[in-house]
Amino acid sequence: MNTRRAQILDAAAMLISRQGFSATSVEDVIRESGLSGKSHFYHYFRSKEELGYEVLDRQFERFAERGLAILREPMIDPLERLHLFIDALVAAQAERGCQGGSPFGSLAAELADAHEGFRQRIALVFERWANQIQSLLWEARPYLVEDVDSGRLSRFIIATLEGALLMSRVKRDISVLEGIAIDLKRFVGMHVREQARQAQAA
């Protein structure tokens, strides 16, 4: 990617995370990224909306590379991968001092009802995330009870994590997320066959 374009996207992502998309102006992005003026900005992006779409796509790609990659690690037991993924989200939030959280949840809360283009793109992001977890659960099916609905469980996991990230952000308290992460692992464990639980304990 062009270095200047990446610089603009990084500046926009930081501003949107801090103050939201609606409150972030093109002028803010120009100032934060060190551009010389609007003509320079519009050389790379046709509109603020196009910039926002690319920020969202880039944030997900980074999330997929750093976070969702854990879910695809073939040398680790699938349910252990899920635990490591949850732990990684907790560690990342702690590192940020509980400031920020999920960019997808924040944008969904701000724009899902106000901007159809963003609603569709954020819906796709959540779908891609759910598909990754559902694939992991499908891989783990020999360990899971027969009636588990992997699609429904994957959506529940995402909804729980998104809510927990938001709560820890509001309270500025990582222990909120840590506690919910423990409870989420226990809930997933309730869908594991008794024989598999005994084998893991042994």
Question: Characteristics of this structure?
Answer:
single chain; 202 residues; mainly alpha; Tetracycline Repressor, domain 2; 2 domains; elongated
Structural write-up:
With 202 residues, this protein is mainly alpha-helical. The protein folds into 2 domains: 55 residues, Arc Repressor Mutant, subunit A; 135 residues, Tetracycline Repressor, domain 2 (Orthogonal Bundle). The chain has 10 helices and no strands. Helix 6 runs antiparallel to helix 7.
| Element pattern in H and E | HHHHHHHHHH
Query: Strand tally, please?
Result: 0
Class of secondary structure makeup = mainly alpha
Radius of gyration: 19 Å
- Given the structure, what is the number of helices? 10
Spans of at least 5 consecutive residues with low confidence: none
The rough form would be described as elongated
What fraction of residues sit in β-strands?
Answer: under 5%
Mind describing the biggest β-sheet?
Answer: none
CATH class of the largest domain: Mainly Alpha
Question: Could you report the average pLDDT, rounded to the nearest whole number?
Answer: 87
Domain count: the total is 2
Please give the alpha-carbon distance between the first and last residues. Answer: 50 Å
In the CATH scheme, what's the topology name of the largest domain? Answer: Tetracycline Repressor, domain 2
CATH homology-level superfamily of the largest domain: Tetracycline Repressor, domain 2
CATH architecture of the largest domain: Orthogonal Bundle
